[in-house]
Design goal:
By secondary structure, the chain is of the alpha+beta class. The protein contains twelve helices and 14 strands. The protein has a single domain, classed as Winged helix-like DNA-binding domain superfamily/Winged helix DNA-binding domain (Arc Repressor Mutant, subunit A, Orthogonal Bundle), CATH 1.10.10. Helix content is about 35%, strand content about 15%. Helix 6 runs antiparallel to helix 12. This is HxlR family transcriptional regulator.
């Protein structure tokens, strides 16, 4: 997963070289949400082999996301602490969680905002004017050298998506991994968000083999991310809502990585005219969410803890409520 400097990848390409893998996202998620720091901690809470876990931890250390330090108990070889770069992924983890809860039928934990005591129900807001926003409120301009060749990476691992019933309360659904866990899928969605609609246009933009493109478009249609109409592939509300995840990812990538000049994206919030600084805000108090102010509540007494190795504290309360969707409307929400 180390980025080859000869590839001259864009910042987004460098970010996906690190994060475009299910196990990496789950390792970081456990570190950020459960504060897991040891090899045994990840091994015992994820259905992952020791060899794969060791490989991913090595990759994350090499990418500057984790740093190993001697463990204070004298028996454990190391613990792995999040660096500033690794901690910066927290908004992405929350954005994925929010999208899955809203659109992928997740019975997942409810986020509690400690500052107001309410269910956070994160929504995307503009960091300049503070108003809720969606993909429809933005305009994206690519730099003169911002091509999809600067994003794409050779896939170095087999796809790691698993069946729905093989996941615990925090495990990612195949819907998310269909987008983030495969480089061509990520690029197809990015092209769709930039306005690409026709098969030949996707092929010209991405330089992808027709058979691969056909497969990815079919999967997105089956999962309700795209719909096909009159020869076009258009984003559904579910697909448009993934803009929240993409906006957070792009912002983190372009803050963290040095890239060739002209290879970046500028996303503008049209209502205020400012370059987008995405903020995840609380649906109850409308204040920005920060990692130390958000927690997962314990479940009601008698609630099952989900799969083996999943602490009961991470099980959803199962309540039904409404809060702003990423597109700004209020939508009935059934966790």
């Amino acid at each position: 997963m180390e980025v080859d400097p000869n590839r001259r990848l864009s910042a987004i390409g460098q970010a996906l070289a690190i994060l475009g893998d299910r196990w990496v996202l789950l390792i970081l998620q456990r570190a950020l949400v459960r504060e897991v720091r040891t090899f045994a901690g990840w091994r015992d809470t994820l259905p992952i082999s020791e060899s794969v876990l060791a490989s991913r931890l090595k990759d994350l250390v090499g990418a500057g996301m984790l740093t190993p330090v001697p463990h204070r108990d004298g028996r454990t070889r190391h613990e792995y602490r999040l660096t500033a770069r690794g901690s910066g992924v927290w908004p992405l983890i929350v954005a994925i969680h929010s999208w899955e809860r809203e659109w992928a039928g997740r019975d997942c934990p409810t986020l509690i905002h400690e500052s107001c005591g309410g269910e956070a129900g994160p929504y995307l807001a503009c960091g300049t004017c503070g108003t809720p926003m969606s993909a429809r409120d933005t305009e994206t301009v690519r730099g003169p050298h911002a091509t999809f060749a600067g994003i794409g990476l050779p896939r170095r691992r087999r796809r790691t998506a698993r069946p729905d019933d093989d996941l615990d309360a925090l495990g990612y659904r195949p819907d998310s991994m269909e987008i983030l866990g495969d480089r061509w899928s990520t690029m197809v969605l990015a092209a769709a968000l930039l306005g690409t609609r026709r098969f030949v246009a996707f092929q010209a933009e991405l330089g992808v083999a027709p058979s691969v493109l056909t497969d990815r478009l079919r999967r997105f249609v089956e999962r309700g991310v795209l719909r096909q109409a009159a020869g076009d592939y258009r984003l559904t509300e579910k697909g448009l809502a993934f803009f929240e995840v993409c906006a957070v990812l792009v912002h983190w990538a372009q803050e963290e990585f040095t890239a060739p000049p002209g290879s970046g994206l500028v996303i503008t919030h049209r209502p205020c005219g400012a370059a987008l600084t995405p903020v995840l805000a609380c649906a109850v108090c409308d204040r920005p969410l920060h990692r130390r102010d958000v927690r997962f509540p314990p479940p009601p007494l008698g609630t099952a803890a989900g799969s083996a190795g999943s602490p009961a504290v991470l099980v959803s309360s199962g309540r039904t409520r409404a809060f702003p969707s990423p597109c700004g409307s209020r939508r009935a929400h059934d966790p």
